[in-house]
Amino acid sequence: MKKIFFTLVAMSAILVACEGKPSAATKTTEAEDSTVLVLFDGETFNGWRGYNKDHVPGKWTIEDGAIKINGGGAGEAQSAEGGDIIFDRKFKNFELELEWKVAKGSNSGIFYLAQEIEGKPIYISAPEYQILDNENHPDAKLGVNGNRQSASLYDMVAAVPQNSKPFGEWNTTKILVYKGTVVHYQNGEPVVEYHLWTPQWKELLDKSKFSAEKWPDAYELLINCGGENHEGYIGLQDHGDDVWFRNIKVKILD
């Protein structure tokens, strides 16, 4: 993971040097930092709605300070009261942090830079941070070299090391998106790094289920992920399984 380490060091230097950004000596606390947005207050769905909907579908509830998707099988995800949810604001350069846990055998995901397209699923326009019970879900053995396991860039880049916790235990996630560089963290470790809008990104798409040959609609959207302004929605996936999310916040980096 040397490449990730050196990239993060360089990016940290850039961020500290940026005009208007506080130095290490003057940095405010998180509570005082206006660039940190709490996306879930632990009690309400304020700011959230269903993808291509004006309300939060009924399969989503709040339980013990966490957002929960109550799974009823993959078919339920397509029902009127199922489906993915998004936070109703687009983000460009940011750090997303949250915690999640899954029931036994559960599958979900976190989408970012997503576009909202009528009649199309969210995952054809957005990279996906995979959420999975690696030990008990068949997807863990699909894909290539583990690229459908927890914290992976779904079907493209495997998370290394694979350090997810067993079902029923809370995991921490951070997703850094900064001027095309994306880093996935899981339980405090950087596990994936890739670079949007580059030859590397095109190569990843070409080798995935979203290639121009296999899924042209998805390829057209993902090759220029985030659209003209390189920004999009953050979304949580309903894959028909029980999954919990809490302590969701975003730090704006631009």
Describe the structure concisely for a colleague.
By secondary structure, the chain is α+β, with helices and mostly antiparallel strands.
What does it look like?
- The protein has 254 residues and is of the alpha+beta class.
- The chain has a single domain (33-252), classed as Exo-inulinase, domain 1 (Jelly Rolls, Sandwich).
- Helix content is 12%, strand content 29%.
- The chain contains 3 helices and 13 strands.
- The chain has helices at 2-17, 199-206, 216-222; strands spanning 36-38, 48-50, 60-63, 66-69, 85-87, 94-102, 107-114, 128-132, 171-178, 181-186, 189-195, 233-236, 243-252.
- The strands form 2 sheets. Strands 1, 3, 4, 6, 9, 10, 11 and 13 form an 8-stranded antiparallel β-sheet that branches. The chain has a 5-stranded antiparallel β-sheet with strand order 2-5-12-7-8, with no helix packed on it.
- A hairpin with a 2-residue loop joins β9 (171-178) and β10.
- The longest helix has 16 residues, at 2-17.
- It starts with a helix and ends with a strand.
- The model is unreliable at 1-10 and 12-29 (pLDDT under 50).
Overall strand count: 13
- Please give the domain count: 1
Low-pLDDT parts are 1-10, 12-29
CATH class: Mainly Beta
Q: If you compute it from the alpha carbons, what radius of gyration comes out, rounded to the nearest whole angstrom?
A: 17 Å
Signal peptide: 1-17
Pfam family, one: 3keto-disac_hyd
Protein name: Putative secreted glycosyl hydrolase
Keywords: Hydrolase, Signal
